[in-house]
Amino acid sequence: MEHDLWVTALLNRFLAGPANAVLDAIHYQHHSDRPWSNWFSNELLVVAIIIVVFAILRGRLSVDKPGKMQHTFELVYDFVSGQTEESAGHPGFKFLPYFGALFIFVLFMNLIGIIPGFESPTMTPSVPAGLAVCTFLLYNYAGFREHGVGPYLKHFAGPMPALAPLMIPIEFISHLARPLSLTIRLYANMFAGEKVTTTFIFLTYLIIPSVFMGLHVFVALLQAYIFMLLTMIYVGGAVAHED
To answer: DSSP for 40-107?
Structure first.
């Protein structure tokens, strides 16, 4: 049984009833005395933090005198927009809000584990799996929307009708492997990074933990970027038109 973090313990103490009601309604097996898990409580905390950050940002937006916070998020927007242009093409700009929200959400979830008393939700497989499924549904929806059902499904058969019996199973397996790949990549890297950082914090208390915490920040940024980039590539491939 996992040890409850302080946020989880508070939720289990004061909000166990509503959580039990929801979990019972969907017939999900759980411990009635502790229905809240660490990954879910920390994920909700990340959502709350993002809402507060953007509420503060909106109140400080200015055309004449933009502050440091506005400059920072403008850089993030320019970065995501530029990556969208390169990876998904012009049709991919329809999904720019999703790309940006995905990058920020994954990044915040990755980084919260660095703070003592918290844990990265992306260390739990179900979290990256949920995001991967959302990406899988999104890029297929984008393909159906851009080309129509028939033409989009037709590209699974390959360029030549004679190759269709071979190409259809290959394409089908390839597309099903994408959410699995996204899940394993994010989960494995964050789990390994968190364990290495935690181990060295317990072994030493000053210089070496700082080095590994810096490495953890780099991994958190890199994995958020890779997850967003692969999503852009999948969307770009789904909405691309053949020359």
So the answer is: HHHHHHHHHHHHHHHHHHHHH--SSS--HHHHHHHHHHHHHHHHHHHHTTGGGGGGHHHHHHHHHHHH
